[in-house]
Write a structure and sequence with these properties.
This protein is an alpha/beta fold and about 550 residues long. The protein is about 40% helix and about 20% strand. A hairpin with a 7-residue loop joins β10 and β11.
Length: about 550
């Protein structure tokens, strides 16, 4: 990019900073969000009920009447009108909207866009994406730049170079009635207009590619000589891109050992979808050459979903994610232990408790109401109630797992957070450079001499001995979970965990074999069955490499 182009696109950042100045100040006012989040959220709910009052679903549940109730009565009446529900409660209506182009079913008017979700264990699901949801997501995306500015990034400095987005396949299908279906990023990319298009990478042609290995290769070739200053993507695929970019730079004669050598002006990495901690040593190594060296200067974690934006990091260096309370959606939280109950209670963000785990439940500006999202969260700070009294700060939460992703075959009660934390700790203690992983129960088979236990299948770089890692992994699980500790006491309830070492790329091959490669697709970190781990291990052994510990 020439000097003139850099000077011109820098103006985009200057304009963005000026446009967002009031929002930046508001986001920095923690006391405002402590005091007013409850009232803001009730206003979002009332707006949803008013908007959807004339729809088929709204008429069936009395939304127009509910919208007239005072704040003191609104939430209880809404909860009485309909229970929390999963996607299957909306499935038939969504099918009529998507396949029959029926208007006014769940949301007013005709919803023309549907996001195809990326689950690995269930069949495809289709999520309505209304025009209002597009605006909601756009507002959330502007908040990313607000927080990057608050974290110390120069917006003119970022836009003086290029921003690279590693979305999923942006190809989508359009029906005879004009209904579009595809990856959420596929629905958004065509909306990128000037002047943002001047800094956007990899470009629409590459973004439209659906074959992920070819797409990564094309992306690396298109970007290796560009002045990339911001990257957005999931850590696993970003690492794959980094490896290709450094290799291409060296092939081109550049003295490049790290990503910093290729893209010295790279300032910000925006990521979400999976926890960062298990990837952090590899990201640091890719950036600075050492697993314990510096990381990309600014990281910003997001909690996006096809159903709507949920939260994003609001404090540099703090993993807490602030609830997106004013972008058109209403959030509730169902206690994890009650999520499968017919009369499961739900709590607003000011009604939750620290130290308890909750499943996220959303009412969205696309026509999903009291929709069980499935992510399990804990709260770091809880805002005041509608009276604005008390409260510990803005609503901040952390994702600790998925309510369907757990291991409890023998009463061990392990969740994703336990497994991820244990892998990260064991990797630090052993010096392993790890990739993807998943865990599952080992069922006893007395005839084969196999006892009840736990297996971890994990990608590792280089030759390693798994015994030390297994011991550290076991100790880290015990440190987090009293039920696991009880089962492991004197090896009576469960045998020591087994670690199956797999070569890097095993999970990628397994995902590719299932047609789930790239973008938002990811393998669950744990499951209460062996279907996933057996498939992954088979993919690893099929490569001719692998070992049991």
């Amino acid at each position: 990019m020439g000097t003139m182009a850099r000077r011109w696109t820098r103006l985009v950042g200057l304009g963005l900073r000026a446009y967002l100045s009031r929002r930046i100040a508001r986001l920095g006012d923690a006391d405002h969000w402590r005091a007013h989040t409850a009232r803001i959220q009730l206003a979002q709910l009332r707006g949803l009920l008013r908007s959807a009052g004339g729809t088929e679903f709204g008429r069936a549940h009395g939304f127009a009447r509910l919208a007239t109730l005072p704040d003191a009565d609104l939430l209880a009446a809404y909860r009485k009108a309909l229970p929390p529900a999963d996607w299957y409660a909306f499935k038939d209506r969504i099918a009529r909207m998507r396949e029959g182009a029926e208007p006014d079913v769940l949301w007013p008017g005709l919803v023309r866009d549907f996001a195809q979700t990326s689950g690995t264990t269930a069949g495809d699901k289709f999520i309505p994406v209304s025009r209002e949801m597009m605006r909601s997501n756009f507002r959330a995306s502007l908040d990313i730049f607000c927080h990057l500015h608050r974290f110390g990034a120069s917006l003119p400095g970022l836009t003086a170079g290029r921003s690279l987005f590693l979305g999923g396949s942006t190809d989508f299908a359009t029906s005879d009635t004009g209904i579009r279906t595809g990856d959420l990023s596929g629905l958004v990319v065509p909306m990128i207009r000037w002047p943002v298009s001047e800094i956007y990478l990899p470009g629409r042609e590459i973004a439209l590619m659906s074959h992920w290995p070819s797409k990564l290769e094309a992306m690396a070739r298109a970007c290796v000589d560009r002045d990339v200053r911001m990257i957005s993507g999931v850590p696993s695929w970003t690492l794959s891109l980094f490896e290709k970019v450094v290799a291409l730079a060296r092939e081109g004669g550049r003295d490049a050992r790290t990503v910093a050598d290729v893209w010295p002006n790279l300032t910000a990495f925006v990521h979400g979808g999976v926890r960062y901690a298990p990837f952090e040593p590899r990201m640091r190594e890719a950036w600075s050459g050492s697993p314990t060296g510096p990381d990309i200067p600014i990281r910003h974690e997001l909690y996006p979903a096809s159903e709507g934006f949920v939260a994003m990091q609001d404090t540099r260096g703090d993993p807490g994610l602030r609830l997106m309370s004013d972008v058109g959606n209403f959030y509730e939280f169902v206690p994890l232990e009650r999520v499968n109950d017919a009369d499961a209670p739900a709590h607003a963000c000011w009604e939750v408790e620290k130290g308890r785990r909750y499943v996220v439940c959303m009412s969205t500006c696309s026509g999903l109401y009291r929709y069980i999202l499935g992510d399990v969260v804990e709260f770091d700070t809880i805002p005041a109630g509608p009276d604005a009294r008390g409260g510990g700060g803005p609503c901040r939460l952390r994702i600790v797992g998925r309510h369907k992703h757990f291991i409890n075959a023998f009463g061990e009660n392990l969740i994703v957070e336990h497994v991820e934390n244990a892998v990260a700790r064991a990797a630090r203690e052993t010096g392993w450079v790890v990739g993807e992983f998943t865990a599952a129960p080992v069922y006893p088979d007395p005839g084969a001499g196999r006892r009840a236990g736990l297996e971890l299948a994990i990608e590792v770089r280089g030759e390693v001995r798994s015994h030390a890692f297994a011991r550290a992994f076991d100790a880290a699980l015990k440190a987090q979970n009293v039920d696991y500790t009880t089962k492991r006491t004197d090896d009576l309830g469960m045998a020591p965990p087994t670690v199956t070492v797999l070569p890097m790329g095993t999970f990628e091959r397994w995902m590719a074999s299932r047609g789930k490669l790239g973008g938002q697709h990811k393998c669950p970190r744990c499951a209460n069955h062996r279907d996933l781990i057996d498939g992954v291990v088979e993919a690893g052994w099929g490569s001719g490499v692998g070992s049991h510990g």
